[in-house]
Every structure is written in C-alpha cells, then in structure tokens.
Specification:
Protein name: Ca3427-like PBP 2 domain-containing protein
Number of strands: 10
GO cellular component, one term: periplasmic space
Order of helices and strands: EHEHEHEEEHEHEHEEHHHH
Radius of gyration: 19 Å
Pfam family, one: PBP2_Ca3427_like
Distance between the termini: 24 Å
Keywords: Signal
Subcellular location: Periplasm
Number of helices: 10
C-alpha cells in the first residue's frame, strides 16, 4: 500500500487552494508547513523528508542550476501553481534614516532566509536591474546575512545586523502598518512565481500516480478558490495572520492556473537566463534548463 504524499508548502495566503483541495476535494496528503521558505524545502526533498514541494520558481531553478549538488539534484519541476509574478517588498528597519531609497542599498548587508532561497536569488535580480553588477558573479552587497525566518529578518534590519531584506508584499504589509519595519521599494519576478516540484523518486519512469492525483485535486481546489472569494478571505484572515482587507486586495493580484500539471519550458529557460546574467548561475555548470523538468 502506498503512503500519502508528504507535501511541503509555505503557510501563507498562497496556500489557500491547497487547503481547499484537502478540505473539499479529498486530497490525501500530509501537508507540512515550511515558514522558512523554498530553500528549506530543497534541503528537505534531498533528505527524503518530503515528496513534493510548492514554492518559488527562482529558488527551485537556482537549486538545480547551481553546481555542486550531489546525485541527481533530488527533485524536478512538474507543475505550475501560480501564473502571476510575485511582488517582493524591499524592507529596512523602522529607524534607519540613512536608508531612503533602493539606490542606498548598494553595497549594503542583505538579509536572506537561506542561501539559494527566493530572498537570496532576488537580491541578485535587484542588483542586476539597478546596474550594480560590474561583472557576472560580482558581489553587489558587502555581506549576505542568513537569518532563516521572516521574524529574524525583521529583527535584523532593526538591530543593524542587516540593512534590508525582501519578502512577499502582503506578508510584509502588516509590519509596515504597525511601524515595525519600513518599506523602501518593490521588485517583481520576471516570471510566473510558484512551481510544484516532485522528488526524483517519484519521477523516474513516469510520474507517480499520487502526483497525478495531486494535480487533479489541486485543480479542483483552485476552481473552488476562484468561485468562493469570501470563503478564501475568511480562511486567510482567520488562519494565516492577514487582515480581511489585505486578503481581498491580494485576491485582485493573483491568478492560479486552471490546470496545474506541467511547466512551460520558456519560463524555465528565461529564469535561467536572468539568473545567469545576475551571477546566481554560471553557464556550463549545474543542470541545464531542459533537464530541470520531469
């Protein structure tokens, strides 16, 4: 008898369709939260602690595109979870008067959750967008401070341990509203923001039937999400630490696919191209974009 899938996910507003798939459409899986994000899920997949992960496109691709991982990389891209780009808010401490604009972050200390995470990768994209990379692979910041959790990132920009960090806009907003941290700017991913990956144990010789079932149930969860915005707002505001007002505003900005199975090759190749330009990946090293998808 096969065991239920162990699915890693980030316990934020984006997880609502996954919750609906389990609550309303019989998804048989253990949902395992990773508040520290996609980089942590990569470690868990490679350690056989989870079977599937739902996380940020750039982190999954960076994880497979970097040289030096052991074996077969541990996972492959199998599905698309969110079609819209992600808005990363750029934050600093509430009392950091010397940091006024994005330009003042050049050469500063960037806080990230983990090396290879979305917050890490987007630092290089930010640097590339602003012309701070004199050569590919150049370090645009004086230090990269690994802090694991959103709470520690917020504490670090207030203590001075880090100068700034990037996190999803609506997750950050309540801390702007409370005055704990201050917004400096924002940056959007130049690709669709969330992908589904499966352990290579489940992709050899064809996709495991449990992953196929996940796609079917997730598609139904997304359809329920789209048809019941009030239920979505209620779930998000009561369970995920967002205000109902912010949840409603977020609903206006996000689009989930009607069919989650599959990944467009162009999305992967364009992400790889940007990450190489930003110096996160090096051409000729690591896995090529055509190898990353099962």
């Amino acid at each position: 008898m096969t065991s239920p899938l162990r699915i890693g996910f980030v316990p934020e507003h984006f997880s609502t369709p996954l919750h609906f798939a389990q609550k309303h459409h019989g998804l048989d899986a253990a949902l395992i939260p990773f508040p520290s994000g996609t980089g942590h899920m990569i470690t868990a997949l490679r350690a056989d602690e989870i079977d599937v992960g739902i996380g940020l496109t750039e982190a999954w691709i960076a994880g497979l595109g970097k040289e030096g991982f052991e074996g077969d990389g541990g996972y492959r891209l199998v599905g698309t979870y969110v079609e819209t780009p992600l808005c990363w808010a750029i934050s600093t401490g509430a009392k950091r008067p010397e940091i006024t604009t994005v330009d003042s972050l050049k050469g500063g200390k960037i806080g990230v959750s983990r090396i290879g995470s979305g917050s890490y990768v987007m630092g290089y994209v930010l640097a590339d967008n602003n012309g701070w990379l004199s050569t590919a692979g150049a370090e645009p910041f004086s230090d990269t401070v690994v802090l694991n959790t959103f709470e520690k990132l917020r504490n670090a920009v207030n203590s001075g341990e880090a100068d700034f960090f990037m996190w999803e806009h609506f997750t950050s907003k309540k801390f702007y509203d409370s005055g704990e941290i201050r917004r400096v700017g924002e940056i959007y991913t130049p690709w669709s923001s969330w992908k589904i990956v499966a352990s290579t144990r489940l992709t050899r010789g064809g996709l495991d039937a449990r992953v196929k079932d996940l796609f079917e149930k997730l598609d139904k969860g997304i359809a329920h999400f789209d048809a019941n915005p009030d239920e979505a707002v209620r779930y998000i505001s009561e369970n995920l630490d967002y205000s109902a007002e912010d949840a409603r505003e977020w609903l206006k900005t996000v689009k989930f696919p009607a069919e989650t199975e599959g990944v467009q090759p162009g999305v992967v190749s364009s992400c790889v191209s940007v990450l190489r330009k930003a110096g996160v990946l090096v051409e000729g090293k690591g896995m090529g974009s055509d190898e990353m998808t099962a």
